[in-house]
């Protein structure tokens, strides 16, 4: 009886500890990678290569002439500095991603947003392994036939009569570093539990 009670307490402790790790762990995303939060960094390429999950952190590292404004979608699109949700400085600025959805960040130095110093971050649920979709279907370019001009790259090729174009195959997203750490912790806890039995 005492052994059974002790095993139950140990099991409940392991479950509680695992849940705390799940809540506490999150990946840190260095905004802009090695280039940081700067006008010379290709932020759009950087953000498209990342997967952001609830619990992750954005870490903005920048020089004294920059800051980080969180703004609405309209202010992001127009690079408006007049109504920020939050203003953050000095560097480094860490922003926790707490909810699923899009958040918008721009530099508050006049002209910097227009020079590309802006980033939209799409956060997915921690249990999801797929990146958010952009909402627009992929376009494909048709190779030119000899002697005819090439169509513009943004024009999708029309389907041939009577046939439907199959949907593009999606590639699975790589798990975030937070997911990898969480899987490792859960595995170690499980191994520890088995060793105690």
Any descriptors?
197 residues, alpha/beta, 3-stranded mixed beta sheet, 17% strand, elongated
How is this structure best described in words?
The structure is a single chain. By secondary structure, the protein is an alpha/beta fold. It has a domain at 27-127: Immunoglobulin-like. The protein contains 4 helices and 8 strands; from the N terminus they run αβαβββαββββα. Strands 2-8-7-4-5 form a 5-stranded mixed sheet. The model is unreliable at 128-178 (pLDDT under 50).
Lay out the secondary structure.
Blueprint: H1 2-24, E1 28-30, H2 43-48, E2 52-53, E3 57-60, E4 68-71, H3 73-78, E5 86-88, E6 93-96, E7 101-106, E8 118-124, H4 177-196
Parallel strand pairs: 1-3, 2-8
Antiparallel strand pairs: 3-6, 4-5, 4-7, 7-8
Helix pairs in contact: 1-4
Fraction of helical residues: 25-40%
Q: For the residues shown, what is the average pLDDT?
A: 73
Number of helices: 4
| CATH architecture descriptor of one domain | Sandwich
What is the CATH fold-level name of one domain? Immunoglobulin-like
- Report the uncertain regions: 128-178
Beta-strand portion reads 15-25%
Main sheet strand line-up: 2-8-7-4-5
Q: How many strand elements?
A: 8
Q: How widely separated are the two ends?
A: 15 Å
Task: State the shape.
Answer: elongated
H-E order:
HEHEEEHEEEEH
CATH H-tier superfamily of one domain:
Cupredoxins -  blue copper proteins
The rounded Rg comes to 23 Å
Structural class determined from secondary elements: alpha/beta
């Amino acid at each position: 009886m005492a052994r059974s009670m002790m095993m139950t307490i140990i099991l409940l402790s392991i479950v509680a500890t695992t849940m705390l790790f799940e809540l506490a762990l999150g990946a840190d995303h260095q905004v802009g990678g090695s280039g940081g939060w700067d006008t010379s960094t290709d932020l759009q390429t950087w953000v498209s290569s990342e997967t952001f999950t609830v619990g992750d952190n954005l870490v903005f590292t920048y020089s004294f002439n920059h800051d980080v404004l969180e703004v609405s979608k309209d202010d992001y699109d127009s690079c408006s500095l007049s109504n920020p949700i939050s203003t953050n400085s000095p560097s480094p600025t860490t922003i926790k991603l707490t909810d699923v959805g899009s958040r918008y960040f721009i530099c508050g130095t006049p002209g910097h947003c227009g020079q590309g110093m802006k980033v939209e971050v799409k956060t997915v649920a921690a249990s999801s392994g797929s990146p958010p979709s952009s909402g627009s279907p992929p376009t494909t370019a048709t190779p030119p036939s000899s002697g005819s001009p090439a169509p513009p790259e943004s024009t999708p090729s029309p389907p041939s009569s009577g046939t439907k174009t199959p949907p593009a195959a999606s590639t699975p997203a790589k798990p975030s570093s937070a997911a990898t750490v969480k899987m490792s912790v859960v595995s170690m806890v499980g191994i520890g539990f088995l060793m105690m039995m």
